[in-house]
Amino acid sequence: MTRTAIIAGSGALPRLLAAELGNPLIASLDGFAPEGLTPDVVFRIERLMPFLRHLEDAGVTTVIFAGAAARPRLDPALFDPHTAQMVPRLLQAMQAGDDATLRAVIGIFEEAGFAVSGVADVAPDLVPGPGLLCGTPSEADSADADRAANIVAALGGVDVGQGAVVAQGLCLAVEALPGTDAMLDWVAQTARRPNPQGAKGVFYKAPKPGQDRRIDLPALGVETVRRAAAAGLAGIVWQAGGVITLDRAAMLAEAEAHGLFLWSREP
Q: What are phi and psi of 246, to 5 degrees?
């Protein structure tokens, strides 16, 4: 018997994938419980090798990473001898940035014999292709989206963030460690447009250039739409095929209620 394991962080995505998979093993990183699911096993990074052996014993052949998780604090006293041997590799990757860390994690799982799948492999409907979902962006909005896409690509090249807000050609904010919600809240509270009667601006989201899309794809949900509306933006744009949309029906309803457009755009 073969089985897929969801390596789950917090949020709704693990639950959505579990519904698609039927009977996956749910493995939760300690401190980052998934929404609406009871984990079959909770693990810590310091005990990674025993955890991998547990997955193998449970018949797991494929893993999929889903949900949000911050870098956990490591307790040196908890390391088993085999996991301790990985510490230099993990620390070197962590010092190089999030993308390097995630690549190292994928490598460890693959070396242990597990195939690593992405969200698009399991639930392609959660990762929309190109198209306008609702609303109508103006030429100015499209120009702002172009500018934001260039900014996000530059940020991603140095492994910083996956989002930016641009209005009237000016960058109002970029996404960094505090995340999307903090960025949009900052725009709502402080950002001013040069021309109050001009374009309201757009929030753009995309994966980092060269990112392994099997892990840590950016995600948008109904709360993102609410915060974009509170920030006075005209719409949300994202790279088609590179961003997860959580509860798309609710996102559409919220966007239409606030007069925002939602645009899954070609890279």
A: -95, 125
